[in-house]
Amino acid sequence: MVEMTFLDLPSEIQQLIVSCVAKNSFQALSTCKSMRALADTPDVYSSFDLYKYPWWTGLRDTLLRRCYDVGNPSTLYIKGVEYFYSLQHHEEGLALMKRAADAGYERALYTYAMTRKLYWDDEEYFASFTREAVGTIGWLVRMDDAPWVPVVNEGFLAKKFMFMSTDRPLFYNCPYLVCIITPMLYDF
C-alpha cells in the first residue's frame, strides 16, 4: 500500500478536512505553518463556532473581522447581541441575530425569538426549536453566572424571568408534548 501524506491530497479535499477540523478545534489547525495556511480561507472562517475557540485572546480583532466578513453565524450572533443589548442599536442588532438564526445557529435562534417575543410580541420563530435545544437553552438561562449574559444590561436582567418560563410550551406544535414538558417548567 502506497503511503500518502495530507499535502498529497487534492486541494479541495484538504480544504474540506480543514473545515471539518475547524468546526471542532481551531487550535488543532495552528500546529504547523502548512495547516495554518490551509486554514486561512473563507470556508474555514465561516464554519467554526467561536464559542469553542478562545477568540478573546491573541489576534481577537483579526479573527472576529475575518469571521464577520464571511458571515460566520456565531460572529453575527455575538455582534447582534452586543448591538441590541449593550449599544442599544436595536435595528442593526436584530438584523444580525436574524441572519445568524436563519443560518441555523441555535443560540441566535433562541435569542432572536425571545427578543421578538419580549419587544414586539411576535412568536414566529418558536416553531423552529428542537426539544434538545430547549433543554440546553433553559439550562443556560437558569445559570446565575451565565457566560453569555451581559451583566451590565439591566434591561435583560429585568426580563430574565420571561426568558426562563413564559413561552416554553409554545416551542412545540404537538399538544401531547405540553403535558410531558410542563413538569420541567417548574423544576428550577
TrEMBL record:
SUPFAM superfamilies linked to this entry: F-box domain (SSF81383)
Residue span, At2g35280-like TPR domain: 53-122
Record InterPro entries: At1g67623-like (IPR040338), At2g35280_TPR_dom (IPR057136), F-box-like_dom_sf (IPR036047)
Protein name, as recorded: At2g35280-like TPR domain-containing protein
